[in-house]
Amino acid sequence: MSAESVSAKTFARESLAVLQHITESSRDTVSRAAELIADCVRTDGVIQAFGTGHSQAMVLELAGRAGGLVPTNRLSIADLVLYGGDAPSVLDDPLLERQAGIAERLYDLAAPRPEDLFVIISNSGVNKVIVEMALRVKERGHRLLAITSLAHTRAVPAGHPSGKKLVDLADVVLDNAAPRGDALLELPAGGAVCALSTLTGAMLVQLSVAEAAAQLLASGERPPVYVSANVPGGFEGNLELEKRYEGRIRRTAS
To answer: Which Pfam families does its entry note (predicted)?
Structure first.
């Protein structure tokens, strides 16, 4: 790729082409992902969403947002401080997500029920805390939906002692179609610019939620969804919906 082709116009063209591709190529897997989500809602489960680094953007796309499903809970490494009593300084370690035992603590702090569905999001799918969480989830009998880059995860070695990757443990895998390393536009002298996984990951989340809502409606059920808190009555209405899942979903200021 030449220097002239690295531009906003090129990124728009290339990223939109990938978005169009995944909407067509992932129809079957989106339908299967939606079944997991709809079944979780029907059985009074909570969708437990987890990711680290920039994958947290897709967690926020799923958990606790306007137009999204109410029974959703965000798991974060920050929970060690918010709910686990650790000192804030533990979050200063940029390699915390690679330490053993972190996922087990986060799982226990969330106190999920058997009917809860886990959605784990990781572009590489090989970080220790990601695989550790997936192993814990499956050991406890939960269903697991993964959002990852198949191109990236297939190109890198496993980072967990088990030799497992996220894709090896999930019941359904949604491929975000991001390239190895995530950045889309190659630079003339090497390297690349403009990450793709946030755009495609958000699309996959919303496709799955839309299809899950369609499945619930088809069976005569009303999807429990959030209204924007910035419209009259929205905040109060959301609080009423959340009462059904009191103590199971966390809503903090951030």
So the answer is: SIS_2 (PF13580)
Two tokens, residue 178: 């991001």
Nearest to 119 by CA among 180, 170, 53, 193: 170
Q: What is the pLDDT of residues 163-207, one digit of tens each?
A: 899 999 999 999 999 999 999 999 998 999 999 999 999 999 999
pTM confidence score: 0.94
Assign 3-class secondary structure to 103-162: HHHHHHHHCCCCCCEEEEECCCCCCHHHHHHHHHHHHCCCEEEEEECHHHHHHCCCCCCC
Antiparallel, parallel or unpaired: β 192-195 and 183-186: antiparallel
Q: How far apart are CA 57 and CA 51, in angstroms?
A: 8
Query: What is the b/e burial string over 48-75, where b = at least 16 CB atoms within 10 angstroms of the residue's CB?
Result: bbbbbeebbbbbbbbbbeeebbbbbbbb
Residue entry with tokens 């699309």 = 203
* Whole-number Å distance between alpha carbons of 48 and 103: 13
Beta-ladder partners of 26: none
pLDDT tens digits, residue range 103-154? 999 999 999 999 999 999 999 999 999 999 999 999 999 999 999 999 999 9
End-to-end CA distance of the chain: 39
- Site of tokens 């958000």: 202
